[in-house]
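Late entry, coenzyme A complex.
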Amino acid sequence: MRRDHRKKPSGVGIKGIGAYVPEAFLTNSDLERMVDTSDQWITERTGIKKRHKANPEQATSDLAREAALKAIADAGIKPTDLDIIIVGTATPDMFFPSTACLVQKEIGATKAAAFDISAACSGFLYGLSIAEDFVRAGKYENILVVGAETLTRILDWSDRTTCVLFGDGAGAAVVGRVGDGHGIISTFLGSDGSMGDLLKLPAGGSRMPATEETVRKRLHYVKMEGNKLFKAAVKAMVNAATKVLDDSGYRSQDLDLLVTHQANIRIIDATAKRIDISDEKVYRNVHEYGNTSAASIPIALAEAKQKGMLRDGMLVELVAFGGGLTWASVLMVW
Ligand SMILES: CC(C)(COP(=O)(O)OP(=O)(O)OC[C@H]1O[C@@H](n2cnc3c(N)ncnc32)[C@H](O)[C@@H]1OP(=O)(O)O)[C@@H](O)C(=O)NCCC(=O)NCCS
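Prediction complete; structure with ligand written out below:
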């Protein structure tokens, strides 16, 4: 008899998933009227066609709350069943209280401890990995992991190299026991702080507190070296994607669905090509939302589930990359 050397799922995984994006959006033609750009340039270089934008009264925790309530309903639990809330975000409502604490209040999760994690676009997968370990350790049952962003608030709307790329949104998952044969098989987290300057928001922290000068110099907006970041992104995503597969004894051809961070269609395509996975197994929705940072993977998962592309028993891989630099991957049986 042939022994199966493949690693088994832990029995801990995603019990419920939900997403929310604000109604308002900007198309590429809208942006043509704001900066020197074109629908053709944006479409060819990024794949993005539109991006959603929070209303002036909406902050990150408001988007997070909507996604959280959907994930909780999908899991068939109540907010008071939550033990922990983890929010991955680069655009918190404020320094403190944490966005997770604001969500805890908003949804009435009175039993839950709450904290944010800062891993930029990799935030949701960092949170998912932490949540799996917490549940596996036996102390907690239900953990809400949210990726939520209002990136349009930190974009320089006069900088065409960044303002066309990002959008607002939130996605959430309830992590808990999902039964034998299901759940997370392997996770991998990584970072390289030496490349942190490629994507950052320079001012407003303790290094460069807000002054009239920092505002005048537009230092409270996203600064990015797109070209270098592009190369680093493909390399990190390919390595992360390969790592959890190798660690678990699987090949990319075994996957039923690959959901990567949605930053740029060319990064997604290059990653998929290099790990050699067939095209129809790769989820893409960057054209619809732009880069929603930590929210992109849970939004994609919720959407894939709704479309019937994410079904019971599927082998699914999630791969993220973001500022920091950070990267992460998760292999699971849905
Ligand atoms: C940003 C990005 C789309 C730019 O594409 P690119 O092919 O690398 O293009 P370049 O940066 O080399 O710029 C090419 C030219 O287009 C111009 N350009 C930049 N943004 C433009 C825009 N919105 N519209 C029109 N032209 C633009 C540049 O000024 C440059 O002009 P030049 O050659 O006259 O100097 C791409 O680098 C990218 O996606 N990087 C990764 C970004 C990312 O994913 N960040 C988040 C990580 S989580």
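Residues 50 and 263 are 13 Å apart (CA to CA). Will revisit in the morning.
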